[in-house]
Amino acid sequence: MRADAARNLSNVLRTGARLLAEDPTTTINTIATEAGVDRRTVYRRFATREALLAAVFQAKLDSASRVLDEARLVEAPVAVALHRYVEGIIPVSREWPLDTRRMMRADPVARARREEQSQRLDRFVRRAADEGLLRAGLPVGWARAVLDDLVDSAAHRFPEIDPPQAADLLVDTLLNGLGRS
Fold this sequence. Notes:
This protein is 73% helix and 0% strand. By secondary structure, the chain is an all-alpha fold.
């Protein structure tokens, strides 16, 4: 792909993610205009709005996969891996603000990828509990839900906080707010 075509595609996907998160009924024409490309450019790549949406979800899943790999959830100490994950996933969530659960019914491949990523995080939170970093008896599912909610809050309710600082706050909140008593 030519450099300008790759740049246009990236811009369309990121603009589409932002606009579709704000209004799920956003048209391809609106996305093209906001992205600064002709609508025909978008239609050459994506025959429908649903195809564009699927590409946005795949881009978000790709980014999240890289973050999970780089966090080293299995090998690194829990607090270090948690910080790496949070510091990496906040920019992904901000860049790709669409909720991937929306696409799951329509795209079995995306659903499987998202489920695999979710299972990796479930195993990580279980590891944190097994290593005694979470209060004994605390349901692991609760801790996982709190992690997801804290990430979502840091990414979207507090955009003025940079990812490293947000990761510091989130790790402290999760491990000390839910930590051993």
